[in-house]
Amino acid sequence: MRIGIVCPYSWDVPGGVQFHIRDLADHLIRLGHEVSVLAPADDDTPLPPYVVSAGRAVPVPYNGSVARLNFGFLSAARVRRWLHDGTFDVIHIHEPASPSLGLLACWAAQGPIVATFHTSNPRSRAMIAAYPILQPALEKISARIAVSEYARRTLVEHLGGDAVVIPNGVDVDFFAAAKPRPEWRSEEARGVTADRAGGTIGFIGRIDEPRKGLPVLMRALPKILAERPGTRLLVAGRGDEEEAVEGLPERMRGSVEFLGMVSDEDKARLLRSVDLYVAPNTGGESFGIILVEAMSAGAPVLASDLDAFAQVLDQGAAGELFANEDADALAAAAVRLLGDPARREELRERGSAHVRRFDWSTVGADILSVYETVTDGTAAVAADERTGLGLRARFGLARD
């Protein structure tokens, strides 16, 4: 099958949508399909052979973050050229409602179109206001996928129609097979008798994006260190490191180690090394791919009780939850878990079992089933799938 995938966000700025598209493309190529991904990218960015650049992106505030998007006459021309040259059997557009390549591709594409909606935003005035502009493009979509029930609700409430829920995928074995790095492990994990109670906490995310929650974790850290003074916090991600620790007492700043941007291999090794992974995100999350990656690596997870995070963690059975933005609750839970190896081991076992449902062997098969459905050429199926109802029935998903 010839598959064209449209990425709305800049390929050279890491993010969950980009990682999902990259891993999906890799999975499909391994299965023997021909895949081309169209994405914004700076001219000097090294790209995989299957990625076609649509030109440089510009930063735009979007969904509580700053997204790097691509729009305009030049971008539209590149979209049309890519579509013409690709002669794709199916076009898979991610975030077609965002002001970027997805919307341009929706307008220009002919033939079967699958769209994946990642955004969870229950009160998006911009999306409601833009609906009259979006409607003609969205009506061309043959089948809709939402990465979570919360992304689906955003779609239904703001744009109408329905979608099948297929989560983001992860290569579970890649994370499970990673080797811990000794310098990132706690003394307890290395079998060393420590003079001071401690442990290693991990955080991965953009440092200067408040909704990723690092400020909440920093507010919790003094109380964690008061109870377990040997604790180390490892932070991986892009941002101003000095600004991140400016609220910490000077004597505690040595307990925080900034790793900067890390490779996929080092991210997996980091998650394999920590005693506890903390996800203090404050909002705007429709799924929580980092939680799935952490569970895949066998890291016990402590996360804010966002609806999407609770769903990924099986309502707290596969990882523990604390009250969103409550630094005291985070600190109390972290101290308790760091002092309870048996509970952490229980969370590792539950997480490792739970996460298998997110492996690409399952997620990729579901996405391919959607492609096959929209390319079967029957008018009846196509009409049914525009609302997502046929897909939900096909996959045995109950409607609300």
UniProtKB/TrEMBL annotation:
This protein's UniProt keywords? Glycosyltransferase, Transferase
Mark the transmembrane ranges. Answer: none
Limits of the Glycosyltransferase subfamily 4-like N-terminal domain: 14-173
Query: A Pfam family this protein belongs to?
Result: Glyco_trans_1_4
**An example Gene Ontology biological process:** carbohydrate derivative biosynthetic process
Q: Which GO terms describe its molecular function?
A: glycosyltransferase activity
Which Gene3D superfamilies does the protein's record reference? Glycogen Phosphorylase B
What this protein is called in its record is GDP-mannose-dependent alpha-(1-2)-phosphatidylinositol mannosyltransferase
At the highest ranks, the source species' classification is:
Bacteria, Bacillati, Actinomycetota, Actinomycetes, Kitasatosporales
